[in-house]
Amino acid sequence: MPSVSRLVLDFCRLALSDNDDGDRYYMAAHELAENVAKYSTGTRVSLDLVMTEQDGVYAMKIHARNETSPEKLRDVAERLSELKRAPDALEFYDRLILETAGAEGISGLGLARIRAEGELEIDYSINGSELTIIAKGPPRRPTAST
Amino acid sequence: MSNLQSLSLDTWRLEPEVVAGAITVRMSGLGDMAVVKPFADFLAGLKDEISSADIQRVEFDVRNVQLLNSSCLKSIFNFAFRIKAEHPSCQMSFLTSASQAWQARALGPIQRMVREQVTISAA
Fold this sequence. Notes:
The complex is a heterodimer. By secondary structure, chain A is an alpha+beta fold. Chain A has a single domain (4-137), classed as Heat Shock Protein 90, CATH 3.30.565. Chain A is built from five helices and four strands, in the order H-H-E-E-H-H-H-E-E. In chain A, strands 1-2-4-3 form a four-stranded antiparallel sheet, with helices on one face. The longest helix of chain A is centred in the N-terminal third of the chain and has 21 residues, at 19-39. Chain B is of the alpha/beta class. The termini of chain B are far apart. Chain B is built from three helices and six strands, in the order βββαβαβαβ. Chain B has one domain (7-122): STAS domain (Transcription Regulator spoIIAA, 2-Layer Sandwich), CATH 3.30.750.24. Classes of the chains: A alpha+beta, B alpha/beta. The A-B interface holds A 1-2, 5, 19-20, 23-24, 26-27, 30-31, 34, 37-38, 93-94, 97-98, 100-102, 104-107, 109-110, 113, 117 and B 10-11, 30, 32-34, 40, 67, 69-71, 73-75, 77-78, 81, 99-102, 105-106, 108-109, 112-113.
């Protein structure tokens, strides 16, 4: 995992002119990578980082894909749906921290953290037993190529 | 005599120092899924030390931390909640790097939720 983290950080810092922007995507990619490692029940997993540009507007997209059980799919779909609907990302994250306080082991905070601290949109899709989670958003500062 | 021990793993290091009623913990490395359990155990020991030695101030120097995953963050949040409940006079401070703004952002929730006892500064 440290070598994957290093690759992600190097990519983010190469693609972005601002290290702090790189750190936002690095955090999001790392949380998604750990999610894939923790919840996957199959052998097909992937993590893709793509910098896109449309009409001069840049955005980083992180796709995390893995196969998991129907029970875990239902659980994560419910949590992702609630996270997407929450009008205030920071308030939702703080509430989740309080609700899960004391429970050790898996944090259950990673996706909410990506939205609140990383200021990234979260989306997801389910295809059979495959779950794809997407975190995306524009850099705060112009990219290195602009 | 402090019972707190340093923790040194491949990519994660915690160095506590107890001086005159205060504890400083220098943290460095990658706080990823490999270190979640030993980190939580360390914080449990730190909480015990605060209780037994009547510690009034704890400083976490996180300037050399490159990553804190949500599970490691949760351990810090839970530690702060326990200190708030059991030792309301104990102050907790976090020293972050001015060039690593993510560190203060990541710790932001405890400053919002344990406002009276937590300070976050950058150097």
